[in-house]
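Sample log: Acyl-CoA dehydrogenase, N-terminal domain protein.
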Amino acid sequence: MVITTAAPPRDEGTALTRLRERIERVAPTINRGHLERDRRALFSREVWEELAGTGLFGSFLPEEVGGQACSLTDLMHVVEHLGYTVRDAGLNFSAATHLASTGFALNGFASPELRRRHLPTIATGAAIGCHAITEPEAGSDVLAMATTGRTDGDHIELNGLKTYVTNGPVADLAVVYVRTSDTPGPLGLSAVLVPRGTPGADFGPALDKSTLRTSPFGRLRLTECRVPRANVIGAAGTGFLILDRVMTWEILIAFVINVGEMRHRLDRVVKRVETRRQFGRPLAEFQSVRDTVVEMHMATQNARRALHAAGEAVAAGHRATAETAMAKILTSEANIRTAQAAVELFGGEGVLTDTGMEIGVRDALGGPIYSGSNAVQRQKIAKALGL
C-alpha cells in the first residue's frame, strides 16, 4: 500500500472547486521568478493581482459585496491548496493577513456603512489590508500598548508608533488597535480603520528581514492622525475582543497554508530519496532516511488534523482557544523541523538558493513568533487546564 501525502478528497461546492482550479491555473505564473523576488525582498503588485483575480479574497465575504459566502472550514481547505500549489510563502502570508486582519475584522464587526464602503475592494484585492498591533514596547503583552485614540467631537485622534506591520508598506487600509480609555485591562482597547493617505498616518518602508521576504512589514507612525469616529470598528472598548477573534482566524488561515507548503515539501523529498542514489542504491532504502521521511509525514498530518479540528470547533461557535493554540504550536514547530530535514535530505543541493529548499527554513522561522508567540500560546493552554 502506498501512503499518499495529498489531502483527502473533499466534497466541495462548484464555486469552491472552481476557486481551487483558478488558483492552480495562476500558480505557474506566480511561481515564476519567486526566488528572485525573495532575493530582492520584492512584493509584486502584479503577482498580487494574479492571486486576487482568482476570487480568493472575497471567498468568505457576503455575495452582495462580491464574495462567495463560504464557511471558515471551506476557506481553510482552499487556502491549504494555495499553500500546496503556490511557492511564494511570503505572498501566501500576505494573503492570509489580508483575509483575517481586514476582511474578517470588517465583515464581522464593522458598521454597515464601513462594510459597504470597503469590503468590495477588500474582496477584489484592489485594496490591500493590514492590522497594526505590535509596538516597540508592547509585543506579546498587547495590553501594554501605548498608542492612543482620543475622541475630539466627531473624530478620533490617534498618536503612537506601531511596528512589524505585515503588509503595512503596501497597504491601503489598516486596522489599528489603540487605547481609547485610561481604564486598565482589555476594555480600554478599540479597533480603528485608517486608510492610507490619512493626514498624520505615515506608512513606513519595508524593514529588511530574513524570513518571508516577499511579504513586506514595516512601521506605522500616527501623529495627530484624525479619522472619523465612524471608523471605529465595533463599539469603543471592544478592540481586545475583536483582536482575539481576528487572531484566531489568522492562525487558522496562515498555518493551514503552512500545512499545504509542508505537503508540497514532503512530495519533493519523497521523489528525491526515491531517485537519488548513494553507495549503489536509492536513498529511500536507507533506514535512517526512511525514518526521517516518516517523521516529516507524521508531523505534517498531525498539524493538519489539529488545525482543521480547531477550525471546525470555531465554525461551530466555540472559542476553541486551547485547540487553536495547540494547532499553532504543532504547525509552526513542525514546519521548521520538516524544512530542516528536507535541506539535509537534499544534501549539498539543499543549501543552494536555486533548489528552493533553504528558503523553506527561512520562511518557517517566524512561525513561532507571529500571530501570538508560542510562549503565549502555551500560557493559553495552561489556563485552559486550570493552571
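Observation: The mean pLDDT is 96.
Observation: Residues 239-275 form the longest helix (37 residues).
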